[in-house]
Amino acid sequence: MKKLLAALLIGGLCTLGCGEPTGSARVTTGPTKKLDTAKAEPTAKAEPTAKAEPTAKAEPTKKTEKEGSVSLTGPKAAITVEKGKKGKATVTVNRTDYEGELKVTAEAPKESGIKVTPAADAGKGDDLILDIEVDATAKPGDYDVTITTTGKGVKDAMAKVKVTVK
């Protein structure tokens, strides 16, 4: 019984076809060898099975451009235009890190009889030339005309031009 129990614990019960009669087991014991692990050499070298590839490529940091800006400076003095006549005004464009084209709009007060038209090349340079036309029926007085520029990547800029109708 002790041999049977030892066989079960060490290697399991031998069944049909192992060279022993059914129900018996052979247990062999012998001297044991002590391994010197300090002298042991590895039997196989570990090699990577695949090269690791990055999952995403880092893009080089783009050089950020300074944020440009635009401001407008209107004429210091009022532009005087007689009824039924035409005049001109110049608004200076102050650009900082922005060389793009600007869209220019001009708005005179309703019922003032003043029509302001930016010159054809307005918005391309540093000076905005404005053509001012006053209707013959306009009431004399001082009127503020609002000039606005818009451009890609910059905030809108605004200036007032005072027009005196005589």
Give me the number of helical elements: 1
CATH superfamily of the domain at 69-165: Immunoglobulins
- Sheet of most strands: 4 strands, antiparallel
Q: Give me the oligomer status.
A: single chain
What is the strand tally?
Answer: 8
Determine the structural class based on helices, strands and strand pairing. mainly beta
The CATH top-level class label of the domain at 69-165: Mainly Beta
Rounded mean pLDDT score: 78
Widest β-sheet, arrangement of strands: 1-3-6-5
Order of helices and strands: HEEEEEEEE
Helix content: under 10%
> pLDDT under 50 segments (min length 5)?
4-9, 12-18
Which strand-content bin applies to the residues?
Answer: 35-45%
- Overall 3D geometry? rod-shaped
Distance between the termini: 133 Å
What's the alpha carbon Rg, rounded to whole Å?
48 Å
CATH topology of the domain at 69-165: Immunoglobulin-like
User: Architecture of the domain at 69-165, CATH level 2?
Assistant: Sandwich
Plain-language structure description:
By secondary structure, the protein is mainly β. The protein has a domain at 69-165: Immunoglobulin-like, CATH 2.60.40. It is 5% helix and 36% strand. The protein has 1 helix and 8 strands. It has one helix at 2-10; strands spanning 69-73, 79-81, 86-96, 103-107, 114-118, 127-134, 141-151, 154-165. A hairpin with an 8-residue loop joins β5 (114-118) and β6 (127-134). The longest helix is centred in the N-terminal third of the chain and has 9 residues, at 2-10. The termini are far apart. The model is unreliable at 4-9 and 12-18 (pLDDT under 50).
